[in-house]
Amino acid sequence: MNDAMEVIQNGAVAIKDETIVAIGPRDILEARYTADTVVDCQDQYILPGLVNAHTHVPMTLLRGLADDLRLDVWLMGYIMPVEREFVSPEFCRLGTQLACAEMIRSGVTSFADMYYFEADIAKVVDEVGMRAMLCESVLKFPSPDAPTYEDSLAYTRQFIEDWRAHPRITPTVAPHAPYSNTRETLEKCTALAQEFDMPLMIHLSETKREVDDNVAEYGMRVMPWVEEVGVFSVPTIAAHCVHVEDQEIHILHKNNVSVAHCPSANLKLASGIAPVSHMLDIGVNVAIGTDGPASNNDLDMFEEMRLAALLAKVAPHNPTAVPAQQALAMATRNGAKALGLEGKAGILAEGLLADIIVVDANNTHNMPHFEHNPTAVYSQLVYACKSTDVRHTICHGQFLMRDRQLTTLDEAQIAQQAAAYASEVGTFLSQREENTLSKLIAVGIDVERAESFEVQTKAVLNDPSKIEDLLSHEDVEVIRAVHYRQYDTYFLFNDQDNSRVRYREDDGIDADGNVTSVRMRLTYTSGEKERSFHDSILLSHSRFIAPASHPLRFYEEFFKATDERHLQKERRRWHIHYQGTLYYVNLDRLIDPEVDQLFVEIKARTWSQTDAEHKADDIRQMMHILGVDTNHVVSEDYLDMQETL
Ligand SMILES: CSC[C@H]1O[C@@H](n2cnc3c(O)ncnc32)[C@H](O)[C@@H]1O
Ligand SMILES: [Zn+2]
């Protein structure tokens, strides 16, 4: 297969060192050249090595860890917490060895990676003999190899300096995605790539939610915003590009951005179908990537090529979209262009790098062959061939697999070490899954432990006007008044701690009834230890509070609680001093479930038995001012009251 994608029957390729010196009919090349090594490729296809344009190779060690989940739950709920715990230089080296073995077996000679500890990944790629663009990730939050983004930029700079002269490795930077970066971090990554004249890789427009969030935060869809930030001023590989509108495709084209289409991952995470055919029609260079083996779950480019061709036909109802030949070009020539290897690899031609695979053509699933149509060979390769048909893989003129034997990797040893990792990760996850609090900590940024002892009394308030009597009482000074509508979702767990996680949306309401602020918080409590104390209740709470940075759906899917309950109420709250001591007075009206009564709740923090007694006494006095009869004291919380309402 050459630049024009011609098929040469009975062809041959002559290689010297890392270069293809000739390509043409076998009899002519045999007459012209002698060679130390001659490989008989009778009944086989000789092709350019496949290019995996987007992956995260060390994630082979997380393959099958969490599946059948939405991207946010998969990534933030499972993958990233495990990565925080386990990803190390050793993890990355082993995961890369496993990935390289898998890719060489399936005919991949070059790949573009985005992960952490890329310097360790580079060492493995150097030893193994593959070609790669290795992109060190930058995120706005701490990552496994950098506590801050400044550290990851410093790491990346050193990584580029150390590896940029390597003949097979292009070291560079990858701001992970717009949502995991800021304008500033994107600008700094771009400047770094520019300084070293390197390309850059980024995840873009993978999910609809990403686009919606981008519009909400920056008032623009993803592509115009990323263009405005300046990212596209360097050659870019944009992974995914599923949710892109016409005008955004033109932005990609205008800026020579290469797209790494990842059909399996987009399907598996239900991200959507990328408009590949349309992008190709407009002239965008669309390559193919497997994405990480935890979201695919393999690194099989034959599978991706086939899926790319099939999937492109579905949305436009057009079986002529992305024909087999084009799919193969995407996995070879377009991939090479994306990795900055245009004119160097991706096709078989004189003077180009000897990145070559040889594929068996005569396995049962490939029979028979039609000779009348020369392009039928592309259909065979894309629709019928399996990655296991790859017989030899050559990169940079060196055999990495010969007759299905890997030459630079010890697969048995790698498999054994990978199994040991899997068992450690499995133990970690199963322990975490058993403990609701650990699950909350895994996804809650800024989880804060709030241990408190409170004295609290709640009662039915029959006469609402009495609240004014309390607030205007001579012993009362009102410090602050607020009005909220509170939407609570409780996740209840049947575990030994009787855990509860409350997701609360607090809508602040102004005097005209308008919502002026919205805040979401998560509160974890285990079975509260409580005891009666006169008419009051002394509560000892051990709570963990965290801002809820994901939508409610995320927590529903992530926690998989035994039971889920909802409660909605209108709350007026006053912070008051009663005889100089701080109390909180809540006046609550339950909206869902609807209750035809008002409840008053008075509470205060406490720290000692004497203090609690004193405060319980104050609360009793205030309840008296409110005209509350001790018979109306309610000891259950609203959630438990639901059962009796
Ligand atoms: C920072 S690079 C690696 C980082 O990206 C995560 N990741 C893997 N696959 C995807 C994907 O499809 N979209 C977004 N992020 C992904 C991976 O787990 C690493 O944390
Ligand atoms: Zn990815």
Automatic annotation (TrEMBL):
<feature type="binding site">
    <location>
        <position position="83"/>
    </location>
    <ligand>
        <name>substrate</name>
    </ligand>
</feature>
<feature type="domain" description="CYTH">
    <location>
        <begin position="452"/>
        <end position="644"/>
    </location>
</feature>
<comment type="similarity">
    <text>Belongs to the metallo-dependent hydrolases superfamily. MTA/SAH deaminase family.</text>
</comment>
<dbReference type="InterPro" id="IPR011059">
    <property type="entry name" value="Metal-dep_hydrolase_composite"/>
</dbReference>
<feature type="binding site">
    <location>
        <position position="291"/>
    </location>
    <ligand>
        <name>substrate</name>
    </ligand>
</feature>
<dbReference type="InterPro" id="IPR050287">
    <property type="entry name" value="MTA/SAH_deaminase"/>
</dbReference>
<dbReference type="GO" id="GO:0090614">
    <property type="term" value="F:5'-methylthioadenosine deaminase activity"/>
</dbReference>
<dbReference type="Pfam" id="PF01979">
    <property type="entry name" value="Amidohydro_1"/>
</dbReference>
<keyword id="KW-0378">Hydrolase</keyword>
<dbReference type="InterPro" id="IPR023512">
    <property type="entry name" value="Deaminase_MtaD/DadD"/>
</dbReference>
<dbReference type="InterPro" id="IPR006680">
    <property type="entry name" value="Amidohydro-rel"/>
</dbReference>
<feature type="binding site">
    <location>
        <position position="176"/>
    </location>
    <ligand>
        <name>substrate</name>
    </ligand>
</feature>
<keyword id="KW-0862">Zinc</keyword>
<feature type="binding site">
    <location>
        <position position="206"/>
    </location>
    <ligand>
        <name>substrate</name>
    </ligand>
</feature>
<dbReference type="InterPro" id="IPR054418">
    <property type="entry name" value="MQNX/HUTI_composite_N"/>
</dbReference>
<feature type="binding site">
    <location>
        <position position="291"/>
    </location>
    <ligand>
        <name>Zn(2+)</name>
    </ligand>
</feature>
<dbReference type="GO" id="GO:0046872">
    <property type="term" value="F:metal ion binding"/>
</dbReference>
<dbReference type="InterPro" id="IPR023577">
    <property type="entry name" value="CYTH_domain"/>
</dbReference>
<dbReference type="Pfam" id="PF22039">
    <property type="entry name" value="HUTI_composite_bact"/>
</dbReference>
<comment type="function">
    <text>Catalyzes the deamination of 5-methylthioadenosine and S-adenosyl-L-homocysteine into 5-methylthioinosine and S-inosyl-L-homocysteine, respectively. Is also able to deaminate adenosine.</text>
</comment>
<dbReference type="GO" id="GO:0050270">
    <property type="term" value="F:S-adenosylhomocysteine deaminase activity"/>
</dbReference>
<feature type="binding site">
    <location>
        <position position="54"/>
    </location>
    <ligand>
        <name>Zn(2+)</name>
    </ligand>
</feature>
<feature type="binding site">
    <location>
        <position position="56"/>
    </location>
    <ligand>
        <name>Zn(2+)</name>
    </ligand>
</feature>
<protein>
    <recommendedName>
        <fullName>5-methylthioadenosine/S-adenosylhomocysteine deaminase</fullName>
        <ecNumber>3.5.4.28</ecNumber>
        <ecNumber>3.5.4.31</ecNumber>
    </recommendedName>
</protein>
<feature type="binding site">
    <location>
        <position position="203"/>
    </location>
    <ligand>
        <name>Zn(2+)</name>
    </ligand>
</feature>
<dbReference type="InterPro" id="IPR032466">
    <property type="entry name" value="Metal_Hydrolase"/>
</dbReference>
<dbReference type="InterPro" id="IPR033469">
    <property type="entry name" value="CYTH-like_dom_sf"/>
</dbReference>
<keyword id="KW-0479">Metal-binding</keyword>
